Amino acid sequence: MIKPLQRSANVLPKAYNMKIFNQTKQWEEKVNFVDDNNVMLGYDLSQDCCEHADWFIADEPYKSIPDHNPNQPGDLPGWNFDPSYKNEVDFSSDEYSEDNMVIFRIVNEGEEKFIHLFNVHNGYYGHGFEFTVGDQTTGGVL
């Protein structure tokens, strides 16, 4: 079971190694992030026409997708989800009419990074995501 965050003491649970399963043979069109507390974020990357769905990690939350995807790392030793942070962003691009992104915060001993899942599309092709903390799963479609 995940312990609640202790905001007043500014203490977050520590992870030993966040694993990133990015389009492995078993899940060719998915990316999954799992931290040491078994908090899991999964995203469907199966592509159709007229869209671009992907993910990236950045040092700050973005309001739109960058011109190029920052490097996507391998596993992240010492990083852990902050289960209380989720930010959904709608933005506009020149290419399509529906541009959606959801951002999750990860922490490591006072540092923070942000996992961005996004889909830029024409309004027809959605991509599902799920965020599981303990026995509670939330999700949506971008």
Distinctive features:
six-stranded antiparallel β-sheet, mainly beta, single chain, 142 residues
Task: Provide structural commentary.
The protein has one domain. The protein starts with 16 loop residues before the first strand and ends with a strand. The strands form two sheets. It has a six-stranded antiparallel beta sheet, with no helix packed on it. It has no helices and ten strands. It is globular. With 142 residues, the protein is mostly beta strands.
- Name the overall outline: globular
Which percent bin holds the helix content?
under 10%
Number of discrete helical segments:
0
Q: Structural class of the secondary structure composition?
A: mainly beta
Number of domains: 1
Low-pLDDT ranges: 1-16
Strand content: over 45%
Order of helices and strands: EEEEEEEEEE
Largest sheet: 6 strands, antiparallel
Radius of gyration, whole Å:
15 Å
Cα distance spanning the termini? 28 Å
Sheet with the most strands: spatial strand order: 5-1-2-3-9-10
Count of DSSP E strands?
Answer: 10
Global mean pLDDT: 78
Compose a concise summary of this entry.
The chain has about 140 residues and is an all-beta fold. The chain has no helices and ten strands.
Topology record:
Layout (H helix, E strand, L loop, with lengths): L16 E6 L7 E5 L5 E5 L6 E8 L17 E2 L2 E11 L7 E11 L2 E11 L6 E6 L2 E6 L1
Antiparallel strand pairs: 1-2, 1-5, 2-3, 3-9, 4-8, 6-7, 7-8, 9-10
